[in-house]
Amino acid sequence: MEIRSKIWVEVDGEPVFGRGRRFLLEAIDKYGSINQAAKEINISYRKAWSYINAMEERLGIKLVERRTGGKNGGGTVLTNEARSFLEKYKKLEDGIKEIVDRRFKKIYGQ
Amino acid sequence: MEIRSKIWVEVDGEPVFGRGRRFLLEAIDKYGSINQAAKEINISYRKAWSYINAMEERLGIKLVERRTGGKNGGGTVLTNEARSFLEKYKKLEDGIKEIVDRRFKKIYGQ
DNA sequence: TTTCGTTATGCGTTTTTGTCATAACGAAGG
DNA sequence: CCTTCGTTATGACAAAAACGCATAACGAAA
Q: Å from B17 (CA) to D24 (C1')?
């Protein structure tokens, strides 16, 4: 028996950002490609693409700069707004899991 | 933009108990009836029934005592094990939301 | 034996989620 | 000029999960 927790951001009651999308943006930042990022975190490109579109629409922020075609087929880089948003989310999330785990051990014991 | 959080218990990687099921058990305790409880928390009886079955199977604990037929058509009461489990979960959950909200205000607020 | 409000459950429908196939793009190199 | 390559971009179908309707069974009391 284990405890799990998650936190996420909503806009108008619709989920807009959580741990999965955090990993997606971080992977895009690392690889410069939605395609590679999706492989890294084990989701389909289609899904990654849908996530990004939904996030941008709901947040009203342009998160990525996409280039299609060209050398290496193109690519995608994070905007400064995306980096800033990501940082805030990381601050929010980091440490929560530890707090929850500690409580779990204390209450359920051993 | 608002923050949301949830915690839940898993067994073998399968979710087994969370806020919704907490409310369900509490409502059963209050009304002595799965049917009334389901109405109270706005889910179908079918769903409530499925939840209970899955919980009991995965936890390996008998959570409710069901009686069918008879005066008032029967009813359902919580077992002592269920009450004990519920108490632990409430201890675990209560306060987490406040911690998360405080962080959110601090990081995103004003 | 009728009534009543439960529990119990099969099954078709709807909604959501996931996956596959394929087009478009455009810089670089031949 | 045109082929190549690894991207981005989407439609359309498939699979899975969730939903909820319809109906049976139950048994104490009147």
A: 30
Give me the pLDDT at residue A13, please: 87
Element containing residue A107 per DSSP (H, E): helix A96-108
φ/ψ (deg, to 5) at A83: -60, -40
Residue B51 lies in a domain: yes
Structure token pair of residue A91: 């601050």
In a domain, B1, yes or no: no
**Contact call for B100 and A7, based on CB within 8 A:** yes
B100 lies in some domain: yes
**pLDDT 10s digits, A61-89:** 999 999 999 989 999 999 999 999 999 99
How far apart are alpha carbons B7 and A6 in whole angstroms? 7
Nearest by Cα to B24 from B67, B82, B93: B82
CB contact under 8 A, B7 and A4: yes
Q: Which residue type is seen at B13?
A: G
Domain assignment present for residue B2? The answer is no
**Phi, psi of A18, deg, nearest 5:** -150, -160
pTM of the model: 0.90
Q: B94 exposed, middle or buried (CB, 10 Å; 0-12, 13-18, 19+)?
A: exposed
Mean pLDDT calculated for residue range A27-46: 97
Q: Which residues contact A21 (CB under 8 A, 6 or more apart)?
A: A51, A55
CA atoms within 13 A on the CB side of A96: 27
Reduce the DSSP state of residue B92 to 3 states and report it: helix
Cα(A103)–Cα(A23) distance, integer angstroms: 26
